[in-house]
Design brief:
seven-stranded mixed sheet, two-stranded antiparallel ribbon, Rossmann fold, alpha/beta
């Protein structure tokens, strides 16, 4: 397979990421910090030149750079969708920063990495993460999406920080069940907790992008 970093480039005009008719509308896309291939393959299926990157190998065959994303940020991408690890950024775990020595420093390191991604020399950028300290330490997100807005019977608030990209438009709303007057989706217990049991791979299972959101990214941002 040819090096995916050598594909066709799109254009950047007037602060917008747009398709280049001279290349058939192909956009060169970097999916940073993704091992699942979900977003990468959604773009590839729509004819774009996409590559994922992570320290882990890809779960599915396809263009993938196994290593540090900083090695390739300057390789002429039109669009980057970044999924930086949320372990030290998400609100759900920040209370441990005062209890575990060294954890607060890891949060600072994670925030520096987020800033590096947001400042990357790429015309169009989307960075996603759960609700957490990016909002208070860097800036508030441009959008918060839910998988149940994109065809999945699931709840997981996901923040999006956008550069030269329009907010995603929801595609298919999945109605919840109602428990004691509160909405609950398929991945939630009646009390609102996530149903995934503790395991060594729980973080990997929860980090995968829902197919409907991946498809919306490719359809809407690939056609920008």
């Amino acid at each position: 397979m040819d090096d995916p970093r050598r594909g066709l480039r799109g254009l950047w005009r007037g602060g917008d990421c747009v398709r280049d008719p001279a290349t058939g509308g192909v956009v060169k896309v970097l999916i940073a910090c993704e091992y699942s291939g979900a977003v990468r393959d959604a773009f590839i299926s729509r004819g774009h030149n996409a590559m994922s990157c992570d320290f882990l190998p890809t779960e599915k065959p396809g263009p993938h750079y196994q290593g540090d994303v900083r090695d390739i940020l300057g390789d002429g991408w039109d669009l980057m969708i970044a999924h930086p690890p949320c372990q030290f950024l998400a609100s759900s775990g920040l209370h441990w920063n005062k209890r575990i020595t060294g954890r607060a420093e890891k949060t600072e390191e994670a925030l520096r990495f987020v800033s590096l991604l947001l400042d990357a020399p790429i015309p169009c950028i989307a960075l996603e993460n759960p609700i957490g300290c990016i909002s208070t330490r860097i800036r508030k997100p441009d959008q918060v999406v839910q998988p149940h807005q994109f065809g999945a019977n699931a709840s997981k608030a996901t923040c999006l920080w956008l550069k030269n990209l329009a907010p995603l438009v929801p595609t298919t709303f999945v109605a919840p069940r109602v428990v004691n007057g509160r909405p609950r989706w398929g991945n939630q217990t009646d009390s609102g907790q996530n149903k995934l049991p503790p395991s060594e791979t729980r973080w990997m299972d929860r980090s995968r992008t829902f197919p409907g959101i991946a498809a919306a990214m490719a359809e809407q941002w690939g056609n920008s």
